Hints:
This protein is an alpha+beta fold. The chain has a single domain (about 10-60), classed as Factor Xa Inhibitor (Irregular), CATH 4.10.410. It is about 35% helix and about 15% strand. It contains three helices and three strands; from the N terminus they run αββαβα. The protein has helices at about 10, 40-45, 50-60; strands spanning about 15, 20-25, 45-50. It is elongated and about 50 Å long. About 5% of the residues are buried.
Amino acid sequence: xxxxxxxxxxxxxxxxxxxxxxxxxxxxxxxxxxxxxxxxxxxxxxxxxxxxxxxxxxxxxxxxx
Length: 65
């Protein structure tokens, strides 16, 4: 079997947990922060799991992560 190429754009945006799930960062925390509340900005700093319906898609895009 040939090697599967990793989609580099996806690999740069996610990490894999010890249980095999993918973790991502929240969007919306880079600019236009003045009108966002402090609690909202604080919540955006934390990472979150990739949606369950997208886990399989990321597993195919990043087979060696």
